[in-house]
Model the fold of this input.
Amino acid sequence: MSRLKNLIKTCPENILASDWMNWHWQLRHRLHQPDDFKPYLDLTAEELGAFKNTQKLFKIQTTPYYASLVNRKDPKDPIRKILVPHTKELSSGAQSMSDPLGERRHSPCRRVVHRYPDRVLFLITDTCSVYCRYCLRKYFTGNDEAFISPKEYQEALNYINQTTSIKEVILSGGDPMTLGDARLIQILTDIRNIDHVEIIRIATRMPVVCPMRFTPELLNKLRLFHPLFIMTHFNHPQEISFESAQTLELLVDHGFPVFNQMVLLRGINNDALVVQELSRKLLALRVKPYYMFQCDPSEGTDHFRTSITESLQIQKELWGKMSGLAMPNLSLDIPGGGGKIGLVPDFCTHKSKEKWSFKGWDGIEGDYINP
Ligand code: SF4
Done:
């Protein structure tokens, strides 16, 4: 696989490769406490303080694999900022919502979010392998319920079964790929038994934080449930290692369309060159850069959020420099549950009934005369 040849393999010298590449080993050895992080990074006094004070707001956890992607010499390392808590999380900031997307308002039963007529989110687990400090679903994620109760599961299935407008089911959480193979296959079988469901998507950050989860054995079982889309969540080019790239190649080779949804995050990726590098690398691995989300005003995320003006400026800088295939769509979820809207840079310089005038990304101007 020549596309992988310059990428770094992550296994540390003191760990057996057979352990490191085993997803059960990765989940069993998740890091929670400051001492767990010592092999991977040196916590500052400020970060140690944040460990004590932010646990109540949101659980702290990462796989060893994801922690190994941190450059321990760089205090501003982007992955470090995603997984290590900061005391800034404790400030209420300009906007701080426990459920910024208003999901609870759109839940016909506890594990289903039905915001749009033709699709639902099915929150199959509240557990993730890594807790991202900017998470939008802190009201639900990381509460250690691990798996849905049989009663809630049946309620959710009944709702999907009885609501014939539902054409797509998006398995989410938490991260559905933290479930074991047998449980995952049972859920997919139950959903595929519902005739009106056409598409299943799995929303997962596991290709980024635990790529060894996607074993060839599992992929051969999952391919029986096509059309099955994988919606993943890379935020920074540093997250693309040899192992994650290999997993993306395997997913596409097994026929899964893979789409990436990133979040614009201050101090992590709010730079057009970083977004461009990420998008190009993903596209070369046959992953479509799909959305670039405005960070939602979830509790403790003010320090991560960019202004809409800045986000539009980033999108404008990308315009023309990347093909449409590589371009992610800048999008914002209206706080409170109004749904997704697209944010598009404005290239219009004049507008009248007769004509609209535009200045393109490279400064060339032109008029469009209305018929
Ligand atoms: S993987 Fe997704 S659901 Fe889990 S903490 Fe990160 S952003 Fe939240």
Summary: The chain has a mean pLDDT of 95. Residues 128, 131-132, 135, 137, 141, 175, 205 surround iron/sulfur cluster (CB under 6 Å). Residues 2-90 form one domain. Residues 150-162 form the longest helix (13 residues).
